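cron nightly-structures :: item 1 of 1
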Amino acid sequence: MHSIARAFRTIAAIVIVCGVAGRVDADDVRMMTSGAFTAALLDLKTEFERTTPHKIVVVTTTMGTGETSIENRLKRGEPGDVVIVNAEALDDFIKQGTVVAGSRVDVARSAFGMAVRAGAPVPDVSTVDAFKRALLAAKSIAYSASVSGTYLSTELFQRLGIADRVLPKSRRIEGERVGAVVARGDAEIGFQQVSELLPVPGITLTGPLPPGVQRVTVYAAGIASHSASPEAAKALVNFLASPAAAPAVRKSGMEPAMVAVSPQPIARRARPEPVAPRLGSGRP
């Protein structure tokens, strides 16, 4: 009888030891991402969580300009593990020390697009001349508060020689997607990343900007310096840059970057104290 009891205790101990030895840490990966990559991320979330023990928690889906901007969230030390923004912004974060140096991985390339309200006449924007005529004919224009809008309002309109006629009827959109403004009829045409226009109901995408005036934005992922789950974060960055993520990236209106991931290890850091988010303006 005693021998049977000892045998059961031995088996139980083996099971416990094997369970501990085979256990893989499961961490939440907190995401701060620009709106341009949001559709692809949400599409990829299920597959990442199915194939790894980790879970994606989306903290913010806007680059932003105010207190809720990704830059200010990082500076305040708000909980976050992976940051996805345009490559220039990510490089700035690395210089500021809020994103780990060497962790940058390019994940997608995105073109700028133009949209009109659903049911409205669709202007021809297939050539630079046609695009210029569409801008001049429009009664009102909306553009984003991020890289696409900056390019249009500070460079492209001037290069086309129509800034004095187009800027007075143009409006920079803060805190919501340009497509929503166009869908309400508050602007006749609107400009933003194609991947940010596609998910918006009530609009028609007229197409990307024509060759000669188009500008492609590279989006990159990096690991936040205060990440509490750096290994899980690295696993997600690897996944987003892998061939497995390419179909979802293309579906969202972007092209995958397919850049090799740096193999360097990233040390685990202490989990930061939670910081209550502040209300403020944002931008996609």
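cron nightly-structures :: done
Residues 112-208 form a domain with the D-Maltodextrin-Binding Protein; domain 2 fold (CATH 3.40.190.10).
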